Amino acid sequence: MVHLIDRRSSSRGRSAVNRERFLRRYKAHVQSAVRKLVGERRLADIEQGGDVHVPRKDIAEPSFGFGHGGDREFVLPGNREYVTGDRIPRPQGGGSGAGGGDAGDGDSEDAFVFALSREEFMQIFFDDLELPRLARTELGRTEHRTSVRAGYARTGVPANLAIVRTLTQSLARRIAIDGSLRREAEELERAFGAAAAAGRSAHAAHAYAELQRIERKLERVPFIDEPDLRYRNRVMRPEPVARAVMFCLMDVSASMDEDKKDLAKRFFTLLYLFLTRKYGEVDLVFIRHTEDAEEVDEDTFFHDTRSGGTVVYSALDLAEKIRGERYARGWNVYVAQASDGDAFGADPARSARFLRDRLLPAARYYTYLELAAESDSGRSSTLWAEYARVATESGNLAMRRATRRDEIYPVFRELFRKDTQ
Amino acid sequence: MTALSHGADWDFELIERYDTAIAGVADEFGLDTYPNQIEIITSEQMLDAYASSGLPVGYPHWSYGKEFIRNEQAYQHGMQGLAYEIVINSDPCIAYLMEENTMAMQALVIAHACYGHNSFFKGNHLFRQWTSADAIVDYLVFARHYVMDCEERYGAAAVEEVLDACHALMAHGVDRYRRPAAPTLRAETARLKAREENRERQFNDLWRTLPGTPAAAASKAKREVFPPEPEENILYFVEKHSPKLEPWQRELVRIVRKLAQYFHPQGQTKVMNEGWATFWHYTILNRLHMKGLVDDAFMIEFLKSHTNVIAQPAFDSRGYGGINPYALGFALFSDIRRICERPDAEDRAWFPDLAGTDWRRSLDFAMRNFKDESFIAQYLSPRLMREFHLFAVADRVEDDALVVDSIHDEHGYRRLRRLLAAQYAIENRVPDVQVLRYDRDGDRSLTLRFARRRGRPLSDAAEEVVAHLHRLWGFAVRLETVDGDEQVGRALECAA
Predict the structure, then answer these.
(1) Same domain, yes or no, for B117 and B92?
(2) Within a domain: B362
(3) Does residue B364 belong to any structural domain of this protein?
(4) What is the pLDDT of residues A183-225, one digit of tens each?
(5) Is B474 left (phi over 0), alpha (psi -120 to 50) or beta?
């Protein structure tokens, strides 16, 4: 007798562990592929999987086998015109055999290509990255717990008694138990009335006695009974203390051409992906500025275009204002600024001063990414010079320059490298 | 009789009814099988099963991940379909059926795997000799746990290194001939005693007076070569004699070796095994149709897949991937039946002992006692060579063109048959590399010898394999190449 088993619902993805091992083994290849992909991609497409190429020789599992050369014969099917002694020119390039018994292994492919899933891609993308100095704003445990209401419970202390709930329960119970008795009582009352009117006293007396008995029963139904009691229930929910807010500041003025904007967008996209992924409790504030600054939503920040002059100070001022209003206490503040540094007149000096005096003391970390066009790389802007002076004084300002798309990722990595101390 | 079902849908009850019907027919033909265990799986699980060579349990290793990714991709890009089934040589015989199959396909697969392959596993001498069907699943479970346990204790990287090295030598980790069982203590004592007695009986003090003998014997003993005979099972030698391996590493070597041994018969009986299973699904389902148990629509669908399976593209056509073992095997078994039932003059001349015999008995004999190489050498008839239009091409170093060596004609039959059989011989697929010397009393180096035949060299991967072996061995490893008696080229060496 055959033994039939339905395995369809059991143990899917048995190879997941092997796949993960494979990825780990070829980590270097996978990482370089991810880096390349990030450099090439458009913003909206970044958060996807991608193909990884691994050279076939790196992936081969060696074993003793025969190489080319030497004498051999092989038998093939499908002869049409050959007779014994015919000479066939040796096929070029494809080794010595037109296909022996062991041909068709696909030596022609030069790389083993496979697709990374979105999760795997992001995992590798964010490998080792950690927000710098994510200090706890309060000492002690990582999380503290707050008590939150969570429905009702059947047990509890009298102080938590939910009166309305309890009465609702009691009412429902009484209706359920009393209902039939009351109906019976009504009938008896009618019977008693009829009997009394007809003058049949025996009947009336009997009905009256019955009525009395039922009423006594009804009296015994308690108004509030143990099962009715309901208490307000509270549970302790962990609350992360290490909250962080990230201010994203971007210059969208006229001097920021499309290339630079693209670089800046990339930087923030990486930042954004990183934050939304790694920290569930991170607030994001997007501020873009020309000669004046405005807070915008994420979508507008990345996708809406605008042009005008440049006043860096306006953005810093707005950031500080928002911080004071919304994130004054209990938040780790991080600021990331991207600009081409084309600020004029008093603005750079004023901005740097404001940064030093107001923003930096309140922020955990401030990153400044200067985006230069390829042609003027090496020449530092006035803003850069001013910021650099501030940076020597305070340890929480980091500055980097980038000119090409594929430089963004390394910059990002460096900025947010795991704190090794 | 009325048909068991109509249409493509299947359910568990139907599968059981088909199985009962198929079992009945198989019984009529006298197929001897292990009990069957049929498991229904999804295509995703089929891909999983592919990656672990069809085994139900496997230890974790990156190469299986690679295999999985490769298959998954080929499947998703439509370059490769999935097998309809996978069957495991175990007792009970486990067969995986895909849920996507139609009823006709399920019936085909049951006949093919659960009765065809199953009876082959149970009957063929190679499987009987080399695999213990009742223990394999338990052993696999043990292996998986052992490997995972080692990973926990010694780290995944250390385990991977050993497994990688073992995998490289897997083809050289099988016993081709049975090892004599280690003598029991009692037998050993008895043997020593008999020798002692013999020596006493033969004792003659005169021998002692011969000059020179003791010294010569002593020096000979000192230079004794180990192993006394070259050892072809390299993994076995490593497991038993490696000077450096930790016990757990030895056990890992053993696990890979056991797996290699388990797969050894499958590699040598591909044509026979598939041919046998294909022959029986064809025969059984036709019999069901004759009995009226399946309808015509069923047969049309079955025949469509059947003809796909046994198609043999010509060497110069697109999609040619070598000789199709299903096609060749099916043709061979069908031909044996034909020779038994309706022999012609040519058959009588070529197969005098076969023509006119009871086909079931002859087929059974062929299934039990051969492997691909001997099977083809024994049974490939001139008619089949003509049908397949077989021809042999010689590829010689001193010739600048390939030469057609023989074709399917009167002069070529015998040579063609011998060449095709040789193509399936293990020595033409796996190079002959053996352990020659282990310098036990010296630098502990290990010397391998590759016996080159007809000038066919080892591939470049040999260097990496030697490096792997060196990792297992811990001391210098040399690989020399000999052709006949003389050494050729420089030895590959991997020193510490």
Answers:
(1) yes
(2) yes
(3) yes
(4) 888 888 888 888 888 877 787 888 888 888 888 888 888 888 8
(5) left
